[in-house]
Amino acid sequence: MNLWKHTLLGLVAALSMSNVNAAPVELDRVAIIVNGGVILQSDIDSALKTVKVNASSNDQSLPEESVLRDQVREKLIIDTLQQQEAERIGVRIDDARLNDAIGNIAKQNNQTLEQLQASVSAQGLTYAEFREQVRKEMSVSEARNAMVRRRINILPAEVDTLAELLAQETNATVQYKISHIQLRFNDNQDKTQLEKQANELVEQLNSGADFSKMAYSYSKGPKALEGGNWGWMRKEEMPTIFADQIKMQNKGSIIGPFRSGVGFHILKIDDVKGLETVAVTEVNTRHILIKPTIILSDEGAKKQLEGFIEQIKAGKANFGDLAQQYSQDPGSAAQHGELGYQTPDLYVPEFKHQVETLPVGQISEPFKTVHGWHIVEVLDRREVDRTDSALKNKAYGILFNRKFNEEAGAWIQELRASAFVEELKGDQDEN
Protein backbone atom coordinates (compact mmCIF):
# COMPACT_ATOMS: atom_id res chain seq x y z
CA MET A 1 0.00 0.00 0.00
CA ASN A 2 1.45 3.28 -1.02
CA LEU A 3 -0.33 5.18 1.70
CA TRP A 4 2.37 7.89 1.72
CA LYS A 5 1.42 9.14 -1.77
CA HIS A 6 -1.57 11.18 -0.65
CA THR A 7 0.60 12.97 1.89
CA LEU A 8 3.34 13.66 -0.63
CA LEU A 9 1.02 15.29 -3.15
CA GLY A 10 0.71 18.31 -0.90
CA LEU A 11 4.31 18.26 0.21
CA VAL A 12 5.59 20.84 -2.25
CA ALA A 13 3.07 23.43 -1.08
CA ALA A 14 3.50 22.55 2.56
CA LEU A 15 7.27 22.73 2.52
CA SER A 16 7.26 25.98 0.63
CA MET A 17 5.46 27.66 3.50
CA SER A 18 8.30 26.97 5.91
CA ASN A 19 10.15 30.01 4.56
CA VAL A 20 7.21 32.40 4.24
CA ASN A 21 8.13 35.91 5.33
CA ALA A 22 11.65 34.80 6.19
CA ALA A 23 13.46 37.34 8.33
CA PRO A 24 16.28 37.41 10.89
CA VAL A 25 15.19 35.58 14.03
CA GLU A 26 16.59 34.82 17.44
CA LEU A 27 18.57 31.64 17.99
CA ASP A 28 16.40 28.53 17.89
CA ARG A 29 15.54 26.64 21.05
CA VAL A 30 14.13 23.29 22.09
CA ALA A 31 10.37 23.47 22.63
CA ILE A 32 9.46 19.82 23.23
CA ILE A 33 11.46 16.75 24.23
CA VAL A 34 10.14 13.52 22.70
CA ASN A 35 11.89 10.42 24.04
CA GLY A 36 15.48 10.91 22.86
CA GLY A 37 14.60 13.57 20.28
CA VAL A 38 13.51 17.18 20.25
CA ILE A 39 11.11 19.52 18.46
CA LEU A 40 12.47 22.99 17.93
CA GLN A 41 10.53 26.23 18.26
CA SER A 42 11.21 26.89 14.58
CA ASP A 43 9.50 23.58 13.71
CA ILE A 44 6.34 24.71 15.51
CA ASP A 45 6.39 28.20 14.01
CA SER A 46 6.91 26.88 10.47
CA ALA A 47 4.13 24.32 10.81
CA LEU A 48 1.81 26.97 12.23
CA LYS A 49 2.49 29.30 9.32
CA THR A 50 1.88 26.47 6.84
CA VAL A 51 -1.51 25.67 8.37
CA LYS A 52 -2.55 29.33 8.30
CA VAL A 53 -1.50 29.91 4.69
CA ASN A 54 -3.17 26.70 3.50
CA ALA A 55 -6.36 27.58 5.38
CA SER A 56 -6.37 31.06 3.88
CA SER A 57 -5.89 29.76 0.34
CA ASN A 58 -8.77 27.30 0.83
CA ASP A 59 -11.07 29.80 2.59
CA GLN A 60 -11.11 27.66 5.74
CA SER A 61 -11.73 29.08 9.19
CA LEU A 62 -9.35 28.25 12.03
CA PRO A 63 -9.81 28.01 15.80
CA GLU A 64 -8.26 30.54 18.16
CA GLU A 65 -4.47 30.74 18.28
CA SER A 66 -3.96 28.76 21.49
CA VAL A 67 -6.08 25.84 20.25
CA LEU A 68 -4.37 25.83 16.86
CA ARG A 69 -0.92 25.88 18.48
CA ASP A 70 -1.86 22.92 20.67
CA GLN A 71 -2.97 20.96 17.61
CA VAL A 72 0.22 21.77 15.75
CA ARG A 73 2.38 20.70 18.72
CA GLU A 74 0.51 17.41 19.03
CA LYS A 75 0.86 16.72 15.30
CA LEU A 76 4.62 17.30 15.48
CA ILE A 77 4.89 15.00 18.51
CA ILE A 78 3.09 12.21 16.65
CA ASP A 79 5.24 12.73 13.55
CA THR A 80 8.41 12.59 15.66
CA LEU A 81 7.31 9.37 17.38
CA GLN A 82 6.63 7.71 14.04
CA GLN A 83 10.00 8.81 12.70
CA GLN A 84 11.68 7.37 15.77
CA GLU A 85 9.83 4.11 15.21
CA ALA A 86 11.02 4.03 11.59
CA GLU A 87 14.59 4.44 12.79
CA ARG A 88 14.12 1.78 15.48
CA ILE A 89 13.02 -0.93 13.05
CA GLY A 90 15.62 0.08 10.48
CA VAL A 91 13.51 1.46 7.63
CA ARG A 92 15.73 2.77 4.85
CA ILE A 93 14.57 4.43 1.64
CA ASP A 94 17.24 4.05 -1.05
CA ASP A 95 17.84 6.64 -3.76
CA ALA A 96 16.15 4.56 -6.48
CA ARG A 97 12.83 4.43 -4.60
CA LEU A 98 13.17 8.09 -3.61
CA ASN A 99 13.69 9.11 -7.23
CA ASP A 100 10.59 7.16 -8.26
CA ALA A 101 8.53 8.90 -5.56
CA ILE A 102 9.71 12.36 -6.56
CA GLY A 103 8.99 11.53 -10.19
CA ASN A 104 5.42 10.64 -9.15
CA ILE A 105 5.08 13.95 -7.26
CA ALA A 106 6.12 15.86 -10.37
CA LYS A 107 3.69 13.86 -12.49
CA GLN A 108 0.80 14.45 -10.11
CA ASN A 109 1.52 18.19 -10.21
CA ASN A 110 1.74 18.12 -14.05
CA GLN A 111 5.39 19.14 -13.92
CA THR A 112 8.64 17.87 -15.31
CA LEU A 113 11.35 17.06 -12.80
CA GLU A 114 13.15 20.28 -13.76
CA GLN A 115 9.97 22.29 -13.19
CA LEU A 116 9.49 20.68 -9.79
CA GLN A 117 13.06 21.53 -8.83
CA ALA A 118 12.51 25.11 -9.95
CA SER A 119 9.29 25.48 -7.94
CA VAL A 120 11.01 24.10 -4.84
CA SER A 121 13.93 26.46 -5.29
CA ALA A 122 11.64 29.44 -5.90
CA GLN A 123 10.16 28.95 -2.43
CA GLY A 124 13.55 29.14 -0.73
CA LEU A 125 14.02 25.41 -0.19
CA THR A 126 17.01 23.55 -1.58
CA TYR A 127 16.32 20.48 -3.67
CA ALA A 128 18.47 18.39 -1.29
CA GLU A 129 16.29 19.47 1.65
CA PHE A 130 13.16 18.64 -0.31
CA ARG A 131 14.48 15.16 -1.14
CA GLU A 132 15.22 14.43 2.50
CA GLN A 133 11.75 15.59 3.55
CA VAL A 134 10.22 13.19 1.02
CA ARG A 135 12.52 10.39 2.19
CA LYS A 136 11.47 11.03 5.79
CA GLU A 137 7.77 10.95 4.93
CA MET A 138 8.21 7.68 3.03
CA SER A 139 10.11 6.02 5.88
CA VAL A 140 7.46 7.06 8.42
CA SER A 141 4.69 5.70 6.21
CA GLU A 142 6.54 2.43 5.63
CA ALA A 143 7.17 1.95 9.35
CA ARG A 144 3.51 2.60 10.08
CA ASN A 145 2.44 0.14 7.40
CA ALA A 146 4.81 -2.57 8.65
CA MET A 147 3.80 -2.23 12.30
CA VAL A 148 0.06 -1.93 11.68
CA ARG A 149 -0.10 -4.87 9.24
CA ARG A 150 1.03 -7.17 12.05
CA ARG A 151 -2.01 -6.18 14.09
CA ILE A 152 -4.58 -6.93 11.40
CA ASN A 153 -6.43 -10.24 11.49
CA ILE A 154 -9.00 -10.91 8.77
CA LEU A 155 -10.97 -14.13 9.11
CA PRO A 156 -11.84 -16.14 5.96
CA ALA A 157 -15.50 -16.03 6.99
CA GLU A 158 -15.41 -12.21 6.94
CA VAL A 159 -14.02 -12.24 3.40
CA ASP A 160 -16.58 -14.81 2.22
CA THR A 161 -19.50 -12.86 3.69
CA LEU A 162 -18.48 -9.58 2.08
CA ALA A 163 -17.62 -11.31 -1.21
CA GLU A 164 -21.12 -12.78 -1.29
CA LEU A 165 -22.63 -9.32 -0.88
CA LEU A 166 -20.44 -7.97 -3.69
CA ALA A 167 -21.36 -10.96 -5.84
CA GLN A 168 -25.06 -10.24 -5.43
CA GLU A 169 -24.49 -6.79 -6.91
CA THR A 170 -22.31 -8.10 -9.74
CA ASN A 171 -24.47 -11.09 -10.62
CA ALA A 172 -27.33 -8.87 -11.72
CA THR A 173 -25.67 -8.49 -15.12
CA VAL A 174 -23.39 -11.55 -15.39
CA GLN A 175 -24.48 -14.39 -17.69
CA TYR A 176 -23.12 -17.91 -17.62
CA LYS A 177 -23.16 -20.54 -20.34
CA ILE A 178 -23.34 -23.82 -18.45
CA SER A 179 -23.37 -27.55 -19.11
CA HIS A 180 -24.65 -30.20 -16.71
CA ILE A 181 -24.24 -33.89 -15.94
CA GLN A 182 -26.67 -35.60 -13.57
CA LEU A 183 -26.09 -39.06 -12.13
CA ARG A 184 -29.48 -40.18 -10.84
CA PHE A 185 -30.18 -42.39 -7.82
CA ASN A 186 -31.89 -45.69 -8.66
CA ASP A 187 -33.91 -47.91 -6.33
CA ASN A 188 -31.73 -50.07 -4.10
CA GLN A 189 -28.60 -48.45 -5.54
CA ASP A 190 -25.48 -48.00 -3.42
CA LYS A 191 -25.22 -44.21 -3.17
CA THR A 192 -21.54 -44.50 -2.23
CA GLN A 193 -20.82 -46.17 -5.56
CA LEU A 194 -22.67 -43.41 -7.42
CA GLU A 195 -20.66 -40.76 -5.58
CA LYS A 196 -17.45 -42.60 -6.47
CA GLN A 197 -18.48 -42.61 -10.14
CA ALA A 198 -19.21 -38.88 -9.98
CA ASN A 199 -15.76 -38.16 -8.52
CA GLU A 200 -14.12 -40.27 -11.23
CA LEU A 201 -15.95 -38.29 -13.92
CA VAL A 202 -14.77 -35.00 -12.39
CA GLU A 203 -11.17 -36.28 -12.42
CA GLN A 204 -11.49 -37.12 -16.11
CA LEU A 205 -13.06 -33.75 -16.89
CA ASN A 206 -10.29 -31.90 -15.06
CA SER A 207 -7.81 -33.93 -17.10
CA GLY A 208 -9.34 -32.66 -20.35
CA ALA A 209 -12.15 -35.12 -21.15
CA ASP A 210 -14.90 -33.76 -23.42
CA PHE A 211 -17.84 -32.64 -21.25
CA SER A 212 -20.52 -33.04 -23.92
CA LYS A 213 -19.45 -36.64 -24.67
CA MET A 214 -19.52 -37.39 -20.94
CA ALA A 215 -23.02 -35.91 -20.73
CA TYR A 216 -24.26 -38.03 -23.66
CA SER A 217 -22.78 -41.15 -22.08
CA TYR A 218 -23.61 -40.75 -18.40
CA SER A 219 -26.08 -37.93 -17.71
CA LYS A 220 -29.69 -38.61 -16.80
CA GLY A 221 -30.47 -34.89 -16.68
CA PRO A 222 -32.99 -32.98 -18.85
CA LYS A 223 -30.30 -31.74 -21.27
CA ALA A 224 -28.42 -35.03 -21.68
CA LEU A 225 -29.27 -35.29 -25.40
CA GLU A 226 -27.93 -31.75 -25.94
CA GLY A 227 -24.60 -32.71 -24.44
CA GLY A 228 -25.70 -31.22 -21.13
CA ASN A 229 -25.85 -27.72 -22.63
CA TRP A 230 -28.22 -25.33 -20.80
CA GLY A 231 -27.13 -22.28 -22.79
CA TRP A 232 -26.82 -18.73 -21.45
CA MET A 233 -28.52 -17.83 -18.17
CA ARG A 234 -28.25 -15.37 -15.32
CA LYS A 235 -28.11 -16.91 -11.87
CA GLU A 236 -31.67 -15.86 -11.16
CA GLU A 237 -32.80 -17.90 -14.19
CA MET A 238 -31.00 -21.09 -13.19
CA PRO A 239 -32.31 -23.97 -11.09
CA THR A 240 -31.53 -23.14 -7.48
CA ILE A 241 -29.13 -26.08 -7.10
CA PHE A 242 -27.04 -24.61 -9.95
CA ALA A 243 -27.14 -21.01 -8.72
CA ASP A 244 -26.08 -22.03 -5.21
CA GLN A 245 -22.90 -23.61 -6.58
CA ILE A 246 -21.77 -20.77 -8.85
CA LYS A 247 -19.59 -18.33 -6.92
CA MET A 248 -18.16 -16.15 -9.70
CA GLN A 249 -16.04 -18.97 -11.15
CA ASN A 250 -14.26 -18.25 -14.40
CA LYS A 251 -14.64 -19.80 -17.84
CA GLY A 252 -13.75 -23.51 -17.98
CA SER A 253 -14.38 -24.24 -14.29
CA ILE A 254 -15.66 -27.69 -13.35
CA ILE A 255 -17.98 -27.56 -10.33
CA GLY A 256 -18.92 -30.59 -8.26
CA PRO A 257 -19.88 -33.24 -7.74
CA PHE A 258 -22.62 -31.94 -5.44
CA ARG A 259 -25.63 -33.82 -4.19
CA SER A 260 -29.36 -33.17 -4.41
CA GLY A 261 -32.41 -35.30 -3.64
CA VAL A 262 -32.26 -36.99 -7.05
CA GLY A 263 -28.56 -37.69 -7.38
CA PHE A 264 -25.14 -36.12 -7.97
CA HIS A 265 -24.49 -33.19 -10.30
CA ILE A 266 -21.50 -31.82 -12.18
CA LEU A 267 -21.45 -28.37 -13.83
CA LYS A 268 -19.10 -26.74 -16.27
CA ILE A 269 -18.86 -23.00 -16.90
CA ASP A 270 -18.46 -22.97 -20.69
CA ASP A 271 -18.30 -19.19 -20.93
CA VAL A 272 -19.05 -15.99 -18.99
CA LYS A 273 -20.36 -12.61 -20.14
CA GLY A 274 -20.36 -9.42 -18.11
CA LEU A 275 -17.75 -10.55 -15.59
CA GLU A 276 -14.47 -8.67 -15.58
CA THR A 277 -11.57 -11.05 -16.04
CA VAL A 278 -8.50 -10.61 -13.86
CA ALA A 279 -5.08 -11.91 -14.86
CA VAL A 280 -2.11 -11.54 -12.53
CA THR A 281 1.57 -12.41 -12.63
CA GLU A 282 2.67 -14.77 -9.88
CA VAL A 283 6.34 -15.16 -9.02
CA ASN A 284 7.95 -18.20 -7.42
CA THR A 285 10.96 -17.13 -5.39
CA ARG A 286 13.31 -18.36 -2.73
CA HIS A 287 15.25 -16.29 -0.26
CA ILE A 288 17.66 -16.35 2.65
CA LEU A 289 16.98 -14.01 5.58
CA ILE A 290 19.62 -12.95 8.09
CA LYS A 291 18.51 -10.75 10.99
CA PRO A 292 21.00 -8.32 12.58
CA THR A 293 21.46 -8.69 16.33
CA ILE A 294 23.45 -7.03 19.08
CA ILE A 295 26.31 -9.32 18.09
CA LEU A 296 25.76 -9.35 14.30
CA SER A 297 25.78 -5.87 12.75
CA ASP A 298 24.07 -4.81 9.52
CA GLU A 299 27.42 -4.95 7.78
CA GLY A 300 28.07 -8.41 9.19
CA ALA A 301 24.70 -9.71 7.96
CA LYS A 302 25.33 -8.24 4.53
CA LYS A 303 28.81 -9.80 4.30
CA GLN A 304 27.46 -13.19 5.34
CA LEU A 305 24.97 -13.07 2.46
CA GLU A 306 27.69 -11.92 0.05
CA GLY A 307 29.66 -14.99 1.12
CA PHE A 308 26.68 -17.20 0.31
CA ILE A 309 26.46 -15.68 -3.18
CA GLU A 310 30.15 -16.39 -3.81
CA GLN A 311 29.73 -20.01 -2.68
CA ILE A 312 26.69 -20.54 -4.94
CA LYS A 313 28.36 -18.97 -7.99
CA ALA A 314 31.50 -21.03 -7.40
CA GLY A 315 29.44 -24.22 -7.23
CA LYS A 316 30.52 -24.89 -3.65
CA ALA A 317 27.02 -24.61 -2.18
CA ASN A 318 23.38 -24.80 -3.19
CA PHE A 319 20.95 -21.94 -2.54
CA GLY A 320 18.32 -24.27 -1.11
CA ASP A 321 20.74 -26.00 1.25
CA LEU A 322 22.08 -22.67 2.53
CA ALA A 323 18.53 -21.41 3.06
CA GLN A 324 17.59 -24.53 5.00
CA GLN A 325 20.68 -24.22 7.19
CA TYR A 326 21.00 -20.46 7.73
CA SER A 327 17.81 -18.60 6.83
CA GLN A 328 16.00 -17.06 9.80
CA ASP A 329 12.61 -17.26 8.12
CA PRO A 330 11.51 -20.63 9.60
CA GLY A 331 8.56 -21.13 7.27
CA SER A 332 10.52 -20.84 4.03
CA ALA A 333 13.75 -22.32 5.41
CA ALA A 334 11.97 -25.65 5.84
CA GLN A 335 11.13 -25.44 2.12
CA HIS A 336 14.73 -24.70 1.10
CA GLY A 337 13.94 -20.98 1.03
CA GLU A 338 10.99 -21.26 -1.37
CA LEU A 339 8.04 -18.89 -0.88
CA GLY A 340 5.89 -20.46 -3.60
CA TYR A 341 3.91 -18.68 -6.27
CA GLN A 342 2.74 -15.30 -4.94
CA THR A 343 1.79 -11.93 -6.38
CA PRO A 344 4.58 -9.38 -5.68
CA ASP A 345 2.12 -7.00 -3.98
CA LEU A 346 2.09 -9.29 -0.95
CA TYR A 347 5.70 -8.42 -0.15
CA VAL A 348 7.20 -5.35 1.52
CA PRO A 349 8.38 -2.70 -1.00
CA GLU A 350 12.09 -3.60 -1.17
CA PHE A 351 11.34 -7.30 -1.59
CA LYS A 352 8.57 -6.54 -4.12
CA HIS A 353 11.00 -4.48 -6.20
CA GLN A 354 13.49 -7.34 -6.34
CA VAL A 355 11.04 -10.06 -7.36
CA GLU A 356 9.48 -7.81 -10.00
CA THR A 357 12.76 -6.80 -11.64
CA LEU A 358 15.10 -9.79 -11.26
CA PRO A 359 15.45 -12.06 -14.31
CA VAL A 360 14.52 -15.70 -13.72
CA GLY A 361 17.48 -17.63 -12.31
CA GLN A 362 19.40 -14.58 -11.09
CA ILE A 363 20.31 -13.98 -7.44
CA SER A 364 19.97 -10.45 -6.07
CA GLU A 365 22.60 -8.50 -4.22
CA PRO A 366 21.97 -8.37 -0.45
CA PHE A 367 19.22 -5.87 0.44
CA LYS A 368 17.50 -4.81 3.65
CA THR A 369 13.83 -4.74 4.61
CA VAL A 370 12.09 -4.24 7.94
CA HIS A 371 12.57 -7.98 8.52
CA GLY A 372 16.35 -8.05 8.04
CA TRP A 373 18.84 -8.67 5.24
CA HIS A 374 17.91 -10.86 2.26
CA ILE A 375 19.15 -12.39 -0.93
CA VAL A 376 16.45 -13.62 -3.30
CA GLU A 377 16.30 -15.69 -6.47
CA VAL A 378 13.37 -15.70 -8.90
CA LEU A 379 12.65 -19.30 -9.90
CA ASP A 380 9.70 -18.76 -12.24
CA ARG A 381 6.91 -16.42 -13.34
CA ARG A 382 3.44 -17.31 -14.58
CA GLU A 383 0.24 -15.60 -15.70
CA VAL A 384 -2.77 -16.76 -13.70
CA ASP A 385 -6.46 -16.17 -14.33
CA ARG A 386 -7.83 -14.92 -11.04
CA THR A 387 -11.34 -14.06 -12.18
CA ASP A 388 -12.83 -16.54 -9.72
CA SER A 389 -11.06 -14.88 -6.80
CA ALA A 390 -11.40 -11.26 -7.92
CA LEU A 391 -14.35 -10.57 -5.64
CA LYS A 392 -12.62 -12.17 -2.68
CA ASN A 393 -9.57 -10.03 -3.36
CA LYS A 394 -11.78 -6.95 -3.54
CA ALA A 395 -13.55 -7.95 -0.33
CA TYR A 396 -10.23 -8.54 1.40
CA GLY A 397 -8.99 -5.14 0.27
CA ILE A 398 -12.07 -3.40 1.63
CA LEU A 399 -11.77 -5.18 4.97
CA PHE A 400 -8.03 -4.53 5.13
CA ASN A 401 -8.46 -0.80 4.55
CA ARG A 402 -11.15 -0.59 7.21
CA LYS A 403 -9.08 -2.43 9.78
CA PHE A 404 -5.86 -0.67 8.80
CA ASN A 405 -7.33 2.73 9.55
CA GLU A 406 -8.69 1.48 12.87
CA GLU A 407 -5.45 -0.21 13.91
CA ALA A 408 -3.28 2.69 12.71
CA GLY A 409 -5.16 5.00 15.05
CA ALA A 410 -4.76 2.56 17.94
CA TRP A 411 -1.05 2.10 17.21
CA ILE A 412 -0.43 5.85 17.21
CA GLN A 413 -2.33 6.22 20.49
CA GLU A 414 -0.17 3.50 22.03
CA LEU A 415 3.01 5.19 20.78
CA ARG A 416 1.86 8.46 22.30
CA ALA A 417 0.82 6.91 25.61
CA SER A 418 4.15 5.13 26.11
CA ALA A 419 6.35 8.05 25.04
CA PHE A 420 8.24 10.46 27.26
CA VAL A 421 7.10 13.94 26.22
CA GLU A 422 8.09 17.14 28.00
CA GLU A 423 6.86 20.50 26.73
CA LEU A 424 9.23 23.25 27.80
CA LYS A 425 7.85 26.60 28.93
CA GLY A 426 7.79 29.51 26.51
CA ASP A 427 6.14 28.02 23.41
CA GLN A 428 2.63 28.82 24.53
CA ASP A 429 3.41 32.50 24.87
CA GLU A 430 4.94 32.92 21.41
CA ASN A 431 3.06 33.89 18.26
TrEMBL record:
Catalyzed reactions per annotation: [protein]-peptidylproline (omega=180) = [protein]-peptidylproline (omega=0)
Residues covered by the PpiC domain: 173-271, 280-380
Stored SUPFAM superfamilies: FKBP-like, Triger factor/SurA peptide-binding domain-like
EC code(s) of this entry: 5.2.1.8
Gene Ontology molecular functions: isomerase activity
Record Pfam families: Rotamase, Rotamase_3, SurA_N
InterPro entries attached to this UniProt entry: OMP_Chaperone_SurA (IPR050280), PPIase_dom_sf (IPR046357), PPIase_PpiC (IPR000297), PPIase_SurA (IPR023034), SurA_N (IPR015391), Trigger_fact/SurA_dom_sf (IPR027304)
NCBIfam families: PRK10770.1
Domain notes: The PPIase activity resides only in the second parvulin domain. The N-terminal region and the C-terminal tail are necessary and sufficient for the chaperone activity of SurA. The PPIase activity is dispensable for SurA to function as a chaperone. The N-terminal region and the C-terminal tail are also required for porin recognition.
Function: Chaperone involved in the correct folding and assembly of outer membrane proteins. Recognizes specific patterns of aromatic residues and the orientation of their side chains, which are found more frequently in integral outer membrane proteins. May act in both early periplasmic and late outer membrane-associated steps of protein maturation.
Protein name per Swiss-Prot or TrEMBL: Chaperone SurA
Gene of this entry: surA
